[in-house]
Amino acid sequence: MTITSKTITKGFIIAGLMNMSVLIFSRLFNNQFIAQSDPDVMSNFGLLMIVIWGLAYVAVAKNYKHVKWLVLVFAIEKLIYGINWINWMINNSVSEVLNKDIMAGTFFSIYGINDWIFCFFFLFVFFRLQSKNS
Fold first, then answer.
1. pTM, rounded to two decimals
2. Which residues in the chain belong to E strands, given as ranges?
3. Which of 3, 17, 121, 130 has the most other CB atoms within 10 Å of its CB?
């Protein structure tokens, strides 16, 4: 199976849209339960930065071939969020958050899965670009 450049571009756009979905889960930064559940990472400022990362993915979607090392930075960023999510899942209860707020609970249930998927996607793209430059 060959993954085309057009498909990779769509992957960057989807990654960006997934990040921007925090606007829905946070009810435009008005969902207090997300910040209360992980104040270090998911404060309103942290959620805003997630949106900014999403905009960065979309911004390079058509030009990703020219920013190979930035793609690796994206993978590292997703790795960090993925590790944070695993740590959060080990030390917290999604059920408790779901009982307080369905949107916040759903967010904590899925955000790390999304981050791991796109971590591997960005790594795939980076290594593909790396092999073409060798």
1. 0.92
2. none
3. 121
